[in-house]
Design a protein that fits this description.
The structure holds 2 protein chains of 2 kinds.
Chain A: E1 27-31, E2 37-42, H1 46-64, H2 68-84, H3 86-95, H4 100-120, H5 124-128, E3 130-131, E4 138-146, E5 149-153, H6 161-172, E6 176-180, H7 187-197, E7 206-209, H8 213-222, E8 228-231, H9 237-247, E9 253-256, H10 270-274, E10 277-285
Helix pairs in contact in A: 2-4, 3-4, 3-7, 4-6, 8-9
Chain B: H1 22-25, E1 43-44, E2 46-48, E3 51-53, E4 60-65, E5 70-76, H2 80-95, H3 97-100, H4 103-119, H5 121-132, H6 136-157, E6 170-172, E7 175-179, H7 185-198, E8 202-206, H8 213-224, E9 232-234, H9 239-246, E10 253-257, H10 260-269, E11 276-280, E12 285-289, H11 295-307, E13 317-323, H12 324-339, H13 359-374, E14 378-381, E15 396-399, H14 406-409, E16 416-422, H15 425-433, E17 440-444, H16 448-457, E18 462-465, E19 484-485, H17 490-494, E20 498-500
Parallel strand pairs in B: 1-5, 7-8, 7-10, 8-9, 10-11, 12-13, 12-17, 13-16, 15-16, 17-18
Antiparallel strand pairs in B: 2-3, 4-5, 6-20, 11-19, 14-15
Classes of the chains: A alpha/beta, B alpha/beta.
Chain lengths: 288, 501
C-alpha cells in the first residue's frame, strides 16, 4: 500500500458568486515560508477587473436595499462559517510563517471583527444620520446611503485579518466591492471566498481577485463604474499619485487610511463605514 | 433664440378662467430697488493679512453688470506672489492667535459677522444683483438671509465640536484654499468660510471673476468685525489664480464649488499630495411628477426648480420626467405659467428671471439651445419681452427629447428644461439615475410611501419631495458620483474641515 496522494486545491478567483479562473490564463507561483510551492494563483488582468466590476454593479441595488437587520445577519453568518472552518485558515496562515499562536489569534480577531461590523449595520444610521431643524415649514432629514462599487486593495501583510477588516465595513454599509488580495499571500482570500459562498452573501457583493498590484491598481482606479477606491497600505508615491489622478476621471472617492496594526483599537471603527457613505438629505413640506 | 418655434396648442381649460393672463388685465409698473446707498469703489484691492493691498503685478480686470453690459468696477488680479502672501498670512494666523483662542471666542467672532451681515443685508443684496444679474427678490429674500443664517449656525458649533464626532476628537486642518462660483457668490462664500472658521481653520478664498463684488464688501465687514489679521484672506482673479491656490504647497485643504470639468482638473492636480479636498460640482437634477401629484403645486415646483436664479443652480431640476397620463396637462400648465414670468432688470422687485451671469455663459446657453434643436427637439419659449441690452434668455422648454440627447445629459446651467415622459416608477427612476451626476432630484406625488421609495432609489445627495430648491444651513448638501465629494451644511458639513483623532 503506497501512501495516499494529497488532493491539492486549485485556487481561483471569486467573481459574481462563482469561482472562475483568470480569463488571461496567467498565473503566478505562491510559496510557503520555506520557499516551497503552495499553489499557482491567478494573475488577474484588466478584463478580470471589468468582469468583477460588472458583477458588483449588478449586485449593488439588491444588496443596498436589504434591510440593515438582514445585512447584519449575513455578516454574522460569515463569522459563524469562519468559526467552523477555522482549522483551514490556521493551517494556511501557519504555512506562510505565522506561529500556531499567531494564526489562532489572527483567525479569532477576524471572526470577531465580522461580528463587530455585523452589529453596526443597524446602528450607524442612528449615530451618524440626522434630522435637521430647518428654518422653514419642512421636515428635513439626512440618511446615509452606500457610495456604490468600491475597489479595495487589501493589506499586503495581513492576508486574513487585514482582508476581513477592509471588506466588512464596506459591505456593512450596503456597498459592493472588488478586492485585490494580498499579492504575496493570496490564498487565505480565496478560502475566505469559500466561506462567503456558504454564508448567504449574494453573488457579486464581494468579488476577490488575485494578481499584481502594479498591474491592476490603474485598472481599479480608472474604471468609470467604480465609485470609490480604498487602501490601507503605504503605497509608493508614484502608484499613489497615479491612483489619485485616474480617480479624478469620474470623481472617485479615494480613501487612504494607513493602518499598521490590525489589532489596534482604531483598526475597527464605524468611521470606516462612514468613508463609504453618501449623505442623502430629503425635504418635505409640512402642512395640511 | 429670439422667437419660439412651436406654436401654442389649443387646450380645454380646466376652469372657466384657468389661463394666467396678466398682461391684458393689468401691467406691472417698474419697481426698481434703489442702488443710491450702495457705494461701489472704482477699484478693489486684495484682502490679505487684514489689509487691502495692491496686487504685485498691478493688474486689474473689469467687472460687468450683466443686465446692462456696463462696467461696475475693477478687481485686482492675484498672481503667484499674492497667493504666497495670502497663504503665508493665513498660516501665521493659524499658528498664532487663531489657534490660541477658545472655541467660544471663535464662535463670537463668527456671530459678529452674522449680525453685521444682517445689518447690511440690503446693501449686499443690491450689490449681488448688480454684479451677478440675479433678481433682487432672490438676493434679498434668499441669498443674503441664508448667508447670515449660515454664519449664525456655524458660529454655534465652534465651542461644541466635541459633540459632533462620536468617539473622535476633531482638530482643525490648517489653511484652507477655497474657490467659489458665480451663481450664488456670497452664499457660497458663507458655505465655505463659516464652517472653516468654526472648526478653527484659516482661509484664502477666491471668488469667481465675474462676481467678486460682494466678497470684497465682505472683506470690509471682516475688518469691521475685528477678526484677527490673516484669518480670512480674499483674493480675486480668474482660473490662473485658482490654480495657484490649488497647487500651493502651503495649503492643507481645497474646497471647490463649480463645474464638474474644473472639479476633475482640481482633483487631478491634487494627486499625490496630502491636501484634503471637498468638491461641489455640477448636476442634472430630475423632477419626477407622478399622476397622483397635486398638479398646480408640481408646476410651481418645476418653475422654481429650473428658473430660480436663471437656472444657474448646480442642483437645478433641469430634466422633467412626467408620467404619461398627465404629460399634456402639465406641459400646458407649465407654458401658461412661464408666460407670466417677468424677465428683465434684476433690480426690479417684480422681476422673476434676471440676467444670465456673463457673456460667456450667455453664449454657452445659446449654444445648447441650438444643439437641442439640431438634435431634433421641439423648443418652446415664453413670449415675454426682454431688454435690448444685457444678457437675457427666455425661459425655454425642450420636448421630444431622448435620454441620449446632449441637452438631457449635459449641464446647461441656464433657464432650459427638458421634458420626457414615463409610464412606471421604475422607468422614472432608471431615467433619473441615468446620468454621471447625482446632486439633486425632485419627486411629486400625493402618496407618502412612493416618496420614500423613489427617494431611496434616486442616487443623489438631495431629494426635494413636493418642493424644490430649498436651502438651509442645518441641511447637508452635496453630490453622489460626479457631482462631488463631501457635504456642506449641517452637522455633516463640519467633517470637511477637521481631522479626526
Amino acid at each position: 500500500m503506497s501512501e495516499r496522494i494529497e488532493v491539492l486545491k486549485t485556487y481561483k478567483t471569486y467573481v459574481g458568486g462563482a469561482f472562475p479562473r483568470s480569463e488571461s490564463g496567467h498565473y503566478y507561483k505562491v510559496f510557503d515560508s520555506e520557499g516551497d510551492l503552495l499553489a499557482n494563483a491567478c494573475m488577474c488582468s484588466r478584463k478580470d477587473v471589468r468582469d468583477a466590476v460588472k458583477a458588483a454593479r449588478g449586485a449593488f441595488k439588491s444588496w443596498n436595499s436589504r434591510t440593515a437587520y438582514n445585512k447584519g445577519q449575513i455578516l454574522y453568518r460569515i463569522a459563524e462559517m469562519m468559526e467552523t472552518r477555522r482549522g483551514q485558515f490556521e493551517e494556511e496562515l501557519s504555512k506562510i510563517g505565522f506561529t500556531a499562536e499567531e494564526a489562532k489569534a489572527d483567525v479569532n480577531a477576524s471572526i470577531d471583527r465580522l461580528i463587530y461590523y455585523a452589529g453596526w449595520t443597524d446602528k450607524y444610521q442612528q449615530v451618524f444620520g440626522s434630522v435637521n431643524p430647518v428654518a422653514s415649514s419642512h421636515f428635513n432629514f439626512s440618511l446615509l446611503d452606500a457610495t456604490g462599487v468600491v475597489a479595495i486593495m487589501a493589506p499586503e501583510n495581513s492576508p486574513l485579518l487585514g482582508l476581513v477588516s477592509v471588506i466588512a465595513p464596506v459591505i456593512a454599509g450596503g456597498n459592493v466591492c472588488v478586492v485585490l488580495a494580498s499579492e504575496q499571500y493570496p490564498l487565505p482570500s480565496i478560502s475566505f471566498a469559500e466561506v462567503l459562498h456558504s454564508s448567504d452573501v449574494p453573488g457579486g457583493v464581494i468579488n476577490i481577485l488575485t494578481g499584481k498590484k502594479s498591474d491592476l491598481a490603474e485598472h481599479f482606479a480608472s474604471h468609470m463604474d467604480v465609485n470609490a477606491i480604498f487602501y490601507t497600505d503605504k503605497l509608493d508615491n508614484e502608484m499613489a499619485k497615479q491612483i489619485d489622478e485616474l480617480a479624478s476621471n469620474n470623481v472617485k472617492r479615494v480613501v487612504k487610511k494607513p493602518v499598521e496594526d490590525w489589532y489596534a483599537s482604531d483598526a475597527e471603527t464605524p468611521y470606516f463605514i462612514m468613508d463609504f457613505q453618501e449623505t442623502k438629505t430629503t425635504w418635505h413640506p409640512v402642512g395640511f | 433664440m429670439s422667437e419660439s418655434i412651436t406654436e401654442e396648442k389649443t387646450y380645454k381649460p380646466t376652469s372657466p378662467n384657468s389661463k394666467l393672463d396678466f398682461q391684458s388685465v393689468w401691467e406691472y409698473d417698474s419697481a426698481p430697488e434703489s442702488s443710491a446707498n450702495l457705494e461701489i469703489k472704482d477699484q478693489y484691492q486684495l484682502f490679505i493679512n487684514g489689509k487691502f493691498v495692491k496686487p504685485e503685478k498691478g493688474r486689474y480686470f473689469k467687472s460687468i453688470n450683466p443686465a446692462t453690459e456696463e462696467e461696475i468696477t475693477e478687481f485686482a488680479e492675484a498672481t503667484q506672489k499674492d497667493v504666497d502672501k495670502a497663504v503665508k498670512a493665513a498660516r501665521k494666523a493659524f499658528e498664532g492667535e487663531w489657534s490660541k483662542i477658545s472655541g467660544k471666542t471663535r464662535g463670537k467672532y463668527i456671530y459678529r459677522i452674522a449680525r453685521m451681515l444682517q445689518e447690511r443685508a440690503r446693501e449686499f443684496a443690491i450689490a449681488e444683483s448688480m454684479d451677478g444679474g440675479k433678481p433682487i427678490r432672490e438676493s434679498r429674500d434668499v441669498d443674503i438671509p441664508l448667508v447670515a443664517a449660515h454664519f449664525f449656525y456655524y458660529a454655534g458649533w465652534a465651542d461644541k465640536l466635541d459633540y459632533a464626532f462620536p468617539g473622535k476628537k476633531p482638530e482643525p486642518l490648517g489653511v484652507c484654499g477655497q474657490i467659489i462660483p458665480w451663481n450664488f457668490p456670497l452664499l457660497m462664500l458663507a458655505w465655505k468660510i463659516a464652517p472653516a472658521l468654526a472648526c478653527g481653520n484659516t482661509v484664502v478664498l477666491k471668488p469667481a471673476e465675474t462676481t467678486s463684488l460682494t466678497a470684497m464688501l465682505f472683506a470690509e465687514l471682516v475688518k469691521d468685525a475685528g477678526l484677527p489679521d490673516g484669518v480670512v484672506n480674499i483674493i480675486t482673479g480668474a482660473g490662473q489664480t485658482g490654480a495657484a491656490i490649488v497647487n500651493h504647497s502651503g495649503i492643507d485643504k481645497i474646497a471647490f464649488t463649480g463645474s464638474t470639468t474644473v472639479g476633475k482638473i482640481i482633483q487631478k492636480s491634487l494627486a499625490g499630495t496630502h491636501k484634503k479636498y471637498t468638491l461641489e460640482l455640477g448636476g442634472k437634477g430630475a423632477l419626477i411628477v407622478f399622476e397622483d401629484a397635486a398638479i398646480d403645486q408640481a408646476v410651481e415646483g418645476i418653475i422654481n426648480a429650473i428658473f430660480f436664479n436663471q437656472g444657474h443652480v448646480c442642483c437645478a431640476g433641469s430634466r422633467l420626467l412626467v408620467q404619461e397620463g398627465i404629460a399634456d396637462k402639465v406641459i400646458m400648465k407649465l407654458r401658461d405659467r412661464m408666460e407670466s414670468l417677468i424677465v428683465g432688470d434684476p433690480l426690479d422687485k417684480n422681476t422673476d428671471i434676471g440676467a444670465i451671469n456673463s457673456k460667456q455663459q450667455f453664449e454657452t446657453v445659446n449654444q445648447y439651445l441650438e444643439i437641442g434643436v439640431n438634435e431634433g427637439a421641439d423648443v418652446y419659449q415664453s413670449k415675454c419681452e426682454i431688454p435690448d441690452s444685457g444678457y437675457f434668455i427666455r425661459p425655454t422648454l425642450f420636448t421630444n427629447v431622448s435620454q441620449s440627447n446632449r441637452v438631457v445629459q449635459e449641464e446647461i446651467f441656464g433657464p432650459v428644461l427638458t421634458i420626457q415622459t414615463f409610464r412606471t416608477a421604475d422607468e422614472a427612476i432608471e431615467k433619473a439615475n441615468n446620468t454621471p451626476f447625482g446632486l439633486a432630484g425632485g419627486v411629486w406625488t400625493d402618496k407618502g410611501s412612493k416618496i420614500f421609495r423613489v427617494g431611496k432609489e434616486l442616487r443623489s445627495g438631495v431629494i426635494w419631495a413636493n418642493t424644490y430648491n430649498k436651502f438651509d444651513p442645518t441641511s447637508p448638501f452635496g453630490g453622489y458620483k460626479e457631482s462631488g465629494v463631501g457635504r456642506e451644511g449641517g452637522l455633516h458639513g463640519l467633517a470637511a474641515y477637521v481631522n479626526l483623532k
